[in-house]
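Need the bound structure for iron/sulfur cluster, inputs here:
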Amino acid sequence: MTAVLEVRDLKVRFATPDGEVSAVNGVSFDVNEGECVGIVGESGSGKSQLFMSVMGLLAKNGRTLGSAKYRGTELVGMPVKDLNKIRGDKIAMIFQDSMTGLTPHLRIGKQMTEVLVQHKGMGEAAAVKRALEMLNLVRIPEAARRLAQYPHELSGGMRQRIMIAMALLCEPELLIADEPTTALDVTVQAQILDLMADLKRVTKAAIVLITHDLGTVAGLCDKVQVMYGGRFMETGSVQEIFYQPAHPYTAGLLASMPRLTEGRREKLYAIPGQPPNLQRLPKACPFQERCDYVHERCVDELPLLRDVTPGHAKACHLLSLANPVSDPKAPSLKVATEARSA
Ligand code: SF4
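Answer from helper R.:
Posting the output first, comments after.
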């Protein structure tokens, strides 16, 4: 498999008046051609900042350490004018809030054709034709009429479809969708996910889906990476994550998913406690304060990702969830060592 994106030991730091925030703490992964990768975690897990850093879109007080390569070209530290040639062209991003992603005072047609003129050097007529094709692809009714409309004249679901159409205009090789359905009601959410599944087949673009909702990744993604406290807790195929979870956090996320249970009212499980403060992350395992299986080692040694089976990895000291005893062979970093290297 050929990697479109290779990320190695990526860290994101923010300088604040109250001290440094460690939003992402050394993650490594590949996104391969045509693959859909789900990045799942609660808000504050670092999942969005990870991709904002890859795209060079961190806030001014943020900095990226480590490496993120698009087709072998280093993105970290790349000058903005070079990054702009890749952003929106080879790598495109869809945001949660379509009202922010679209320019309110510009007609849809103008916003779409400008991208094509800028990145592809197209003439006006060719750009309009391509914009119409994309609106049809994302199933916008009366596409020609929409080109003359402003964002506020459209429903939230339609605006999100237009955001997706805009992201696809230049035929990106990698599409990063950050909570693309969160702001929409449930039926529209299902339509957008259905649309993304179709686009995955039609466009062959690699997709990264960033979400707090494990259910969202089920029908769309090939791989899932579960993030917490700026680290990957578990990575694996959708089947492994859903049917053989190996990390207590993943198991907690699965248990808190709503299920259809006929004729019974079941109270939803909620993982106790709150996500950690990224300014004062617990030493060693970031999940220790909320974990039912926490033991002495979890407080002293940072668990490293290790294979459960090939392609399925977890960062936890336990032998397994079925046999939750500490595994002395589990690779780890003594906290003092980690503190020096961070
Ligand atoms: S390392 Fe310890 S605290 Fe962390 S998830 Fe595993 S058992 Fe829980």
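Comments: The chain is about 35% helix and 25% strand. Residues 1-90+172-341 form a domain with the Rossmann fold fold (CATH 3.40.50.300).
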